[in-house]
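User: structure tokens for this one?
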Amino acid sequence: MKRIIIFLSSTLLLLSLLCTTSSAARIKDIAQLKGVRNNQLIGYGLITGLAGTGDDLQKVLFTRQALYNMLVRQGITVNPEEFNKIKVKNVAAVMVTASLPPFAKPGSTIDVQVSSIGDAKSLAGGNLLMTPLMGPDGKVYAVSQGPLTIGAFSFGGKAAKAQKNHPTVGRISGGALIERQPPGIFAKNGTLSYSLRSSDFTTASNMSKKINDKYGPGTAFPIDYATVKVIIPEPFLNNKVQFVASIERLRIDTDTNARVVVNERTGTIVMGEDVRLSTVAVSHGNLSLVIKDTTDVTQPNPLAQGQTVAAPQTQIDVIEDDGQLMVVKEGVSIGAVADALNAIGATPRDLIAIFQAIKVAGAMHGELIVL
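Assistant:
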């Protein structure tokens, strides 16, 4: 237990040092420029060339229908009644997804992710047929095609099976060709709009002040606690990229709410830099309940009349550790709070219960988040 407590104390102190030494962050790491973002694409396609590990066309009807439509588009005459009887296992239906970067130009390529939606056993060795990728507006922005790489295998018979990684999901590097440039708004009417990834009034104010200190008063001003508007100065109207790059390199002091995040499933506790505790008395003792079931056999003498009877016996032991009432003084830093809590002699999982009780008592100045 002592080793666990020392480790927790060291971890909390390390987190404290990291928080205090790295509070200044670049604008590009804490804010997103409006109109400059990725766009999600999705498409439905077919994988061919599988070695008997594809969908069962007699069970997966949408794969059979897609294969039939593909053959008809290629000018191949197919009898629907005869086609419904085929039993091929080298085709699989897949969903193809991709992320279209901002300002992507037609002719450039992006990576795509391919995942099976049927009962295929493996996509190893498969080739994706031409698949249009559409955005939320229903327009085609890219077309994907090519051999699939999965980095996995799955082989087996009736009695055994060997598998490595996940064989029904793969990737095609540079597998989609961009056909349409995504819509985007950049520096409209000579202004920029930044959205903070973690909304905070203090951070928005610090960001505006830093920009105004560098480019003059009135250049930036916060609209609300999540948005900062920037007016492009006259010398940079014809060189907006350089202006944005110079802004994103600026470092500002960020601020967040005081929080304690606990995860009872893993016993993880993370405390923010500004968490404070008022003076509070804490006593914590572990309660263990041990139940043992045993069976005693009662057997009569050899010449006596009677039956052998099994009598179950239950033994209950209650073990309660001595709880010591200790006063946790008001912590002036996260290190002081960690030292005070570790002095109680509790494990990380016990500390989670203590934090919850301190919060209910109103002695914790900060937000308690339980994952």
